[in-house]
Design a protein that fits this description.
The complex is a heterodimer of chains A (about 400) and B (about 425).
Chain A: E1 18-21, H1 27-37, E2 41-46, H2 62-72, E3 76-79, H3 85-96, E4 100-103, H4 109-112, H5 117-123, E5 128-133, H6 148-155, H7 157-160, H8 175-198, E6 202-207, H9 208-213, H10 219-226, E7 247-251, E8 258-262, H11 266-275, H12 290-295, H13 297-308, H14 313-322, E9 327-329, H15 333-339, H16 341-346, E10 349-353, E11 359-363, E12 367-369, H17 387-394, H18 399-407
Chain B: E1 26-30, H1 36-44, E2 48-53, H2 77-82, E3 87-90, H3 96-107, E4 111-114, H4 120-123, H5 128-134, E5 139-144, H6 159-165, H7 186-209, E6 214-218, H8 219-224, H9 230-237, E7 253-258, E8 261-266, H10 270-282, H11 305-316, H12 321-330, E9 336-337, H13 348-352, E10 357-360, E11 367-370, E12 376-377, H14 395-402, H15 407-415
Parallel strand pairs in B: 1-2, 1-4, 2-3, 4-5, 5-6
Antiparallel strand pairs in B: 7-8, 8-9, 10-11
Helix pairs in contact in B: 1-7
Classes of the chains: A alpha/beta (about 400), B alpha/beta (about 425).
Chain lengths: ~400, ~425
């Protein structure tokens, strides 16, 4: 690739930014990982009362451990009991030396600690506060609680994802949390840009429900302009904008192996037919035009599958890509980690050391910035690992102060 | 037009709403479907996003659905949704005169957003290396299916095949259905969301250094970083995650069929699990679930999973979505209904917060509802300033006004099909 000669950058875009991070589980930590990857110092404020939540310091499962590292690599951790007045006092001292405060509690928690935006502004006038809640901090549902699946159900994604003739499946996993994380990172960066221009901080009221609803594509417009129609119902793997057929996942040789194929132009259809070695069925007049292919799509799908099922998914992808037809293996976790030569060469997965020197695999940033590539260089912190650095070096607390707090149970 | 509601006072006081965060940032949006949402995100946050359409109009204008189901390039809901707040010019970027005009425009631009195959714009003399020579602060974001490097860099992909290659499709759906896409074009949207983050990082870096940079975004990686559990499961357990519908991994985060549809019941705490069992017992439908051996809420993942699932499913069918939601939320459990499309526009929370935006249909006196701000910034907010532009609506303004092209030359270039 010759597009860029200067790819030697080793910089970070957010050097010098400090983030006080109260977020937990998935959405919040994935937002602040974007910031820590780019050089921001992210200090997680953790409590021993939530050690075992997903991505917590002592996640109960191997998968939870993976999530701990994946969303918290490169961060620092302190232990602070926010139910004690001294704990809140220390947190406020940290706010005074931070640029961003992030939290994803339900609406009652931060005000309960005296840590709402108006209070934080007294301590740090230009502070940027990111509040990521399920439903936002105003309105009749502001105190409701949610998980990713709750929001997927409420936004319509659950009912709208899947095949018309079977139960909806909804998105696997918590798409909503990933979306909330991306939105949270965007909002903080926008606020940092605004602060750099005007000196103003601000409060970000992020409703993960709204962030997810923003991704329904044309549905909201369609419902308001045209009302209910087949366009507003789940349609399996058909093209969402009706831009062509075939358009789906097709069975290949092997157990639960599939290839995704889409055809949007006449040229791509001809190439597909050629690659299949011109089977008689493909010459059927019903399939000669785009409208004909869309009109007989069920039959088209099963005939295409008679061909794909004689090949491996990798073979189908290679043959069709050589002919210029979009096709891709429906990749599994094992495919991504072990078998995909492309993602390996791009270095998407990164290997970082945890506190005990064990190598941990994490996802890298899905973008490459030529001057500020960033990237985490260590795994997630152990619970309270940075007590000394944060309390002594950042806040300059004395032995005496620390001892008093320890006796009062502030660090538990 | 439509919702605005926020003042644009130039005087910034401590509590005033200021300018939008990207006001004054000019973006040349050369993108297709993979990047069009990124352009929208920037435009909605105040950037001057100029959509560069091929002469005759962007092919996206042919995508349905259409306003009142009437197929027309200015009535594509796809176009209207993804191009709010943008301006439009037409230009054949492959024509030498087009290259010249675009190069000139780049001198006054902050961001170039493009989704051509790797090397395409380089070959035309419109690559980052060339353009950044005359504009070192330029941020140039290239969004492609597989990125600018690696053995698959020239592979083609659409939303569906990108979703497949990124590892999200395999786990979506039920064990007895094919792997399934999400509603909408979420691989494209995710690529745009990721690219927007990268562009904002580059803008922040530029404020400190004056230097722009090149951004290489891969749709496959954008999707792969968004699956939550596919990579962590494999990398930390050695097993690939499989399809399990809306029973997320362990059934303790699950959706169930109920009397009038589906409802999400997450037993994320011991209290939630105990409350659920108590309610089932009150209804006389808990079976042996109240016994001590089922106290561990993670037991749903174990050997008794099927038995427990049958009990919960049978019980859920005796209640409505609303009953289950209200009962759970009253106890602070994250339970909620799976809404159908006809209910989406009726959500009281979204309307109360002013989320939805209503705008006049450009050609008829009918209101169209748009999705609103993905997040609320108190001092530099998202705004709906104007609807998507018509084909080449701003040709004269930009070519003659900004670039100083004489009117007669604009006419000649238009006749020649360059503009």
């Amino acid at each position: 690739m010759n597009a860029v000669s200067d790819t030697s950058g080793s910089g970070h875009a957010l050097q010098g930014i400090r983030v006080l991070d109260f977020t937990w589980i998935h959405a919040g930590p994935s937002a602040t990982r974007v910031l820590s990857d780019q050089g921001a110092e992210v200090i997680k404020v953790e409590s021993n009362q939530a050690l075992a939540v997903v991505g917590g310091p002592s996640s109960a499962t191997a998968r939870g451990l993976g999530q701990r590292h994946n969303w918290n690599a490169g961060k620092r951790s302190i232990s602070l009991d926010m139910k004690t007045p001294q704990g809140v006092a220390i947190a406020k001292r940290l706010v005074a030396v931070s640029d961003v405060v992030a939290e994803n509690f339900s609406g009652r928690v931060m005000p309960g600690w005296g840590m709402d935006y108006q209070s934080l502004r007294q301590v740090k006038p230009d502070v940027i506060m990111l509040s990521m809640s399920g439903f936002g901090r105003t309105g009749p549902w502001k105190d409701r609680v949610s998980y990713g699946q709750t929001l997927q159900a409420l936004s319509g994604f659950t009912e709208l994802t899947g095949f018309p003739d079977s139960d909806p499946s909804g998105p696997a996993s918590a798409y909503s949390d990933a979306v909330g994380g991306m939105a949270g990172a965007q909002a903080v960066l926008l606020a940092l840009l605004h602060r750099a221009r005007t000196g103003q901080g601000q409060w970000i009221d992020l409703s993960q429900f709204e962030a997810l609803t923003s991704l329904l594509d044309t549905l909201v417009l369609d419902l308001s302009a045209n009302g209910e129609s087949p366009n507003t119902q789940r349609s399996g793997n058909r093209s969402p904008s009706g831009s062509g057929a075939p358009h789906g996942a097709y069975r290949c040789i092997g157990e639960d192996r599939w290839v995704a194929i889409t055809v949007s132009t006449g040229g791509e259809w001809e190439s597909l037919v050629h690659v299949m070695d011109n089977p008689a069925w493909a010459k059927d007049e019903r399939f000669a035009t785009a409208a004909g292919r869309s009109g007989h799509v069920d039959e088209l799908d099963s005939l295409l599958e008679t061909w794909t099922s004689q090949h491996t998914a990798e073979e189908v992808m290679r043959l069709l890509q050589e002919a210029g037809v979009p096709a891709g293996v429906v990749q599994t976790g094992a495919d991504l980690a072990e078998n995909d030569p492309h993602i390996k060469e791009r270095g998407f997965f990164r290997h970082v050391l945890d506190a005990k020197g064990v190598s941990r695999t994490i996802e890298g940033a899905p973008y490459k910035l030529s001057r500020t590539p960033g990237g985490a260089n260590r795994g997630a912190p152990e619970f309270g690992a940075d007590q000394t650095y944060v309390l002594r070096e950042v806040l300059g607390m004395s032995d005496e102060e620390l001892a008093d707090c320890a006796i009062a149970g502030v660090f538990e | 037009m439509g919702f605005s509601g926020q003042s644009q006072d130039s005087e910034v006081t401590e509590d005033s709403i200021g300018q939008q965060p990207l006001t004054g940032i000019r973006v040349l949006d050369l993108s297709g479907p993979m990047g069009v949402y990124c352009g929208k995100l920037m435009a909605d946050m105040g950037a001057d996003v100029i959509k560069v359409e091929p002469p005759g109009g962007d092919p996206m204008r042919d995508l349905g659905p259409f306003l009142q189901d009437e197929a027309h390039p200015e009535r594509s809901l796809h176009w209207l949704h993804f191009n709010t707040n943008k301006r439009s010019i037409t230009l054949d970027v492959a024509d030498p005169k087009g290259v010249e005009l675009l190069s000139k425009m780049v001198l006054g631009a902050d961001v170039v957003l493009e989704t051509f195959p790797p090397g395409y714009l380089d070959a035309l003399g419109l690559g980052y290396t060339v353009l950044s020579r005359s504009n070192p602060g330029l941020i140039y974001a290239s969004l492609t299916p597989f990125g600018q490097t690696g053995p698959y860099k020239n592979f083609k992909a659409t939303d569906l095949t990108g979703f497949a290659m990124g590892g999200y499709m395999y786990v979506t759906g039920w064990p007895d259905t094919p792997p399934t896409r999400l509603w909408g074009s979420q691989a494209y949207n995710t690529t745009s969301n990721r690219a927007f983050i990268a562009i904002l990082l580059a803008l922040y870096h530029r404020m400190a250094t004056g230097k722009g940079q090149f951004i290489d975004v891969s749709m496959q990686e954008a999707v792969a970083a968004t699956t939550e559990h596919v990579n962590t499961t494999y990398n930390y357990t050695g097993e690939s995650a499989v399809r399990c519908g809306f029973r997320h991994g362990g059934q303790f985060v699950a959706t169930w069929r109920c009397k009038d549809g589906f409802v999400s019941i997450t037993t994320n705490t011991q209290q939630a699990w105990d409350d659920l069992r108590d309610w089932m017992a009150q209804d006389g439908m808990a079976g042996d679930l109240s016994s001590e051996r089922f106290n561990d809420r993670f037991i749903l993942r174990g050997e008794h999973g099927e038995h427990i699932e049958e009990l919960i499913q049978a019980w859920a069918l005796t209640h409505t979505r609303q009953e289950i939601t209200d009962w759970g939320q009253a106890r602070h459990h994250p339970w909620g209904p799976a809404v159908r499309s006809d209910e989406i526009l009726n959500n009281e929370q979204l309307w109360d917060r002013g989320y939805f935006v209503e705008s006049e249909d450009p050609s008829r006196a009918k209101k169209v509802v748009y999705p609103g701000a993905p997040y609320k910034l108190s001092k530099s907010p998202w705004q709906f300033n104007h609807p998507a532009p018509q084909v080449g609506q701003h040709n004269r303004e930009i070519y003659c006004g900004d670039l100083g092209l004489p009117e007669d030359e604009l006419e000649i270039l238009t006749a020649q099909g360059v503009i």
